[in-house]
Amino acid sequence: MSSDQDHLQQTDTEERFDFKKDSEAAYAAEKGLTEDTIHAISDDKDEPDWMRERRLRALKQFQAMPMPTDWPGQPDLSEVEIDEIVPYIRPDIDTRGGVEDWTDLPDDIKDTFDKLGIPEAEKNALSGVGAQYESEVVYQNMRERWEDKGVVFMNMDQAVQEHPELVKEHFMTDCVPPSDNKFAALHGAIWSGGSFVYVPEDVTVDMPVQAYFRMNSEGMGQFEHTLIIAEEGSEVHYIEGCSAPKYSAFNLHSGGVEVYVGENAHVQYSTVQNWSKNTYNLNTKRALVEQEGRMEWISGSMGSKATMLYPSTVLKGRGASDNHITIAFAGEGQDIDTGAKVYHNAPDTKSTIESKSISKDGGRTNYRGLVHIADGAENSSTAVECDALMFDNESTSDTMPYMEINESKVDVAHEATVGKIGDEDIFYLQTRGLDDDDAKQMIVSGFIEPITEELPIEYAVELNRLVELEMEGSLG
Amino acid sequence: MSATLKQGLSEEVVRDLSATRDEPEWLLERRLDALSALDDLDLPDVIQTPGRRWTNLTDLSFEQLVDPLNQSDETERVTAEGVEVLDFETALDEHEDLLREEFGATLDPQSNYLTALSAALFTTGTLIYVPEGVDAEDVKIRTEMRSDSLFSHTLVVTEESASVTILEAIGDEGPTADDEGRYFSNLVEVAAGKNSNVQFGSLQNLSEDAYCYTLKHGVAADDATVDWIEGNFGTQITRSDVETELDGEGSESQIVGAFFGHEDQHFDVNARVWHNAEHTTADLVTRGVLDDTARSVYEGVQDVGRDAWDTSSYQRENTLMLSDDSEADASPKLIIKNHDTEASHSATVGQVDQQDLFYMNSRGISPRQARNMLVEGFFVPVLEEIAVEEFRDDVQDLVHERLD
C-alpha cells in the first residue's frame, strides 16, 4: 500500500489541476434549454419513451419554479444562466456505455485520468471504476466476482436500457422527485451519465466502488445521476470524486444522487469534490433508509465558486441510523454553503452530524443543517457538532442549524465552536523545528483527521494533497 | 401591508392622539413619519424550514384589536436614589431635549411594520435616566394593561460610569370579556454610556388570550455592559426580539431568556448580538419548558464583524418538553467575519431525565412532585442571573404556579 501512496504523493499537484484538453465532441447540444434540447438528448441516447416523458415533465417543473433567493445568507446565484450551459456533450468515441479495457481509451482521455491517478487506484484497491469524462461513462470495469454475486455497477444510461424495471421504480420517484427544488428539476430534465449500483440481498461488497467525474468543456454543465439500491442485509461503499480543470467561463454542476438503503443494509457514500473555482455546484443527494438500515455520508467540499449541498437522509424505518461527516474548505472567492438534513420519521432512529470547516483568504463557509424529528419518532436521538477554523480576517464562517422537534421523548444536542488557529500550537510546533507553513498544515491535517480516517487510503491521500495545495496557495 | 384597525388608521387619528396629549411638534412629526412608512415595511422575519413558517404573523387578526384612541393602562413606577424614572408626559416636560435626542436613536422605529405601528401609536412609556456615576438598584415598572390594545415605549439612558438594575412587569386585568384578546406592543431601547452598566429584566404575564410583540434593543459604548433578562409566561402568541449591539471596545452583553408554555401557547423568542468592536464579550442563555400543545421557536444570532478583534461569544439554548404534543424549533446561528474569535453555541431539546426521575422516586418522592422539582431546577441557571430579587421571586412563583 505504501508504494501507491508514494506514487500519488509524487504527482505534481499543480499539473493535476491546471491542465485542460482540446475538446473533440461528437455532439454538442445547442446552447439554451427547450423541449427540443430534451428530445435531442433522448434521441441521441435512444431512450425509451417513459424516460423521455420524465425528462419533459421535469423541464416543465424547472420552468415553473423560481430561483431560490430568499435563504438567509445564501450564495449569490445571479450569475447562473441556465441558457448558457451546454447541457450535454458526449466525447467523440465509438463505444457507447464505456470500454472494457483501460488500454482501449483514447490517449488524451487516458492522459487526463493518469494525471488524476485513477488507474492505480482502480488496479489496487477498487472493485470497479466508472470514470466519467464529459457526460458519458467511458470506462467501466467490474471485477468478475462481484458480477457473479449479482452486483450491478454500470453507467446510468446503460441501466435505463438494461434494467428498466428497477430504474423506472427508483429513478427520481420517492427519493428525489424533480419537484424537490429547481436544480433537481433541471437535473431531471437533462441528466446524463452517472452510475447505477445494485447490491442484492445479503451481499457485502467489501471493496469500495468508485466513480470519477470530470468536466472538460468550457461553459458546460454536468448532470450525472447516481442511483444506488442496497437490498436487505447488503453492504456497499460508494466513492465519488470530482475535479475539473480551471476555466474562465462559469460551469454548472447539478448532480443527483439517490440511495435506497434496505432493511438492515449499510451504505456509505463518500465524495471529495474539487470542482474548479468557477463552478457552481448545486446538487441534490438523498437517502431513504428502512428499518435498522444505516446510511453514512462522508463529504469533502474543496473546490467550486459556490456550493449549495446538503446531503439528506430520511430515516423511515424503526432503528434506522445516519452518520454525516462533512468538511468544507473555502479559499479566495469561494462560498461553500453545505451541511446536512436528517428526517427522523420512525422511532428509535439515530443520527450524528459532524461538520468541519476551514475558511481563508476571504472565503466563506457556512454550515446549514436541518434535523427534523417527527411526531411519534420516540426515543430518537441526534447529535450535531460543528467546528470551524478561520485563518484570517477577510474570511467568514457561518453556522445556521435548524432543529424542528415534534416529539418529546427525544435527545437532541447541537454544538458548535469557531476559532482561529492557535498561536500557542504553532509556537509549540515551531520549537520542534517546523516552519510556520508546515506547522499550520499539520494543524489543519489534524483538524480534518476525523474525515480522512473514514476514507480509503487513496482518497485520504488525495484529500490531504488538495488541502496542502490550498494551503500552499496562501502561505507560500 | 395595510392595517384593518377598529377605528381605521389615518393621519387624522394620529394627529388627534398627539393633540390630546399636548405633544410638541417634533414628536407628532415622528409619529407621522412612522405612519407613512407602514406601507413599505414588512412584518418581522420569522424562521422558515422546508414546508413550514414557524410563526405565522400574516394570518393573525390582532390588528383588529388595535384601537389607537382607547388605550389605557395603570403603571406603577418605583424609582431609586439618583435616578429619574418618569412617565412619558412628565419626561416631555422635564427632559424634552434628552427625549428629542435619544428617542428612537437606538431602536429604529422603522425596523419593521410592528415597530413603526408602535412608534405611530404609543401612549404609554417610561424614561429612565441615570446620571453620571450614579449606582442604583431595583428600579421597578409595573404595568397593568386596561384596554384592548396598548403601545408602550421605554427609553433607558445611562451616562458614563452609571449603573442600574431595572424590572419591568407586564400584566392585565384578566381575559377580555369578548374572548377576542388584547394586543400589547412593547419597545424598549437602552443607550448605555461609557463604562455604564444596565440590567433590564422584563416579565410578561398577560392573559392567555393576548398577543404580544416586543423588541428590545440596546447599544453599548466603550466598556459598557447591557444585560437583558426576558421572561415570557403569558399570551397565546408572543414574538420577542432582544438585541444588543456591542459598538464600544470592551463592551459586554448577556441575554438571558426564560419561557414556560402550556396549553396552546406559542413563543417566538429571538436573541441577537452584534460584535462591532474589539474585546467584546457576549453570552446568550435561554431556557424554556413546553407542556401540552405549546410551541416554541428560538433563533439566536451571534454576529462577529470584520473589526471585532478578540471576541468572545457564547450561546446556549435548552428546551425541556413535558408533553408529547409540544413542538420546538431551535436555530442558533453564528456569523463570524473575524478570525480572532472564540465562539461557541449549543442547543438541546429533550425531556425530563428518566434516571433523575427514577432516583427521586426511589427516595419516596412521587413522580409528579419529582418532575416538578426537576423543572424548577431547570430554571436555576437563569434565575441565578437575575439581579433584582423581586423579579427572581416572581419568576419562581410563576413556574411554581404553572406546575400545580
TrEMBL record, chain A:
By its UniProt entry, which Pfam families does this protein fall under?
Answer: SUFBD_core, SufBD_N
| Superkingdom of the organism of origin | Archaea
Q: Which residues form a coiled coil?
A: none
Q: Residues annotated as region Disordered?
A: 1-47
Per the database record, which ranges form the SUF system FeS cluster assembly SufBD core domain?
213-447
The record's listing under InterPro entries reads: Fe-S_cluster_assembly_SufBD, SUF_FeS_clus_asmbl_SufB, SUF_FeS_clus_asmbl_SufBD_core, SUF_FeS_clus_asmbl_SufBD_sf, SufBD_N
Q: Where along the chain is composition biased (Basic and acidic residues)?
A: 1-24, 32-47
Q: Name one GO biological process term.
A: iron-sulfur cluster assembly
Give every SUF system FeS cluster assembly SufBD N-terminal domain span.
139-210
Query: Record's family?
Result: Belongs to the iron-sulfur cluster assembly SufBD family.
Q: Tell me what this protein is called.
A: Fe-S cluster assembly protein SufB
UniProt organism field: Halolamina pelagica
Q: What is the lineage of its organism?
A: Archaea, Methanobacteriati, Methanobacteriota, Stenosarchaea group, Halobacteria
UniProtKB/TrEMBL annotation, chain B:
The record's Gene Ontology biological-process terms are: iron-sulfur cluster assembly
Recorded hits in SUPFAM superfamilies, A to Z, give: Stabilizer of iron transporter SufD
Against Pfam families, the record matches this protein to: SUFBD_core
Indicate the segments forming the SUF system FeS cluster assembly SufBD core domain, all copies. Answer: 146-378
Q: Which InterPro entries does UniProt cross-reference here?
A: Fe-S_cluster_assembly_SufBD, SUF_FeS_clus_asmbl_SufBD_core, SUF_FeS_clus_asmbl_SufBD_sf, SUF_FeS_clus_asmbl_SufD
| Family the entry assigns | Belongs to the iron-sulfur cluster assembly SufBD family.
Q: Which NCBIfam families match?
A: sufD (TIGR01981)
What name appears for this protein in its UniProt entry? Fe-S cluster assembly protein SufD
Q: In which organism is this protein found?
A: Halolamina pelagica
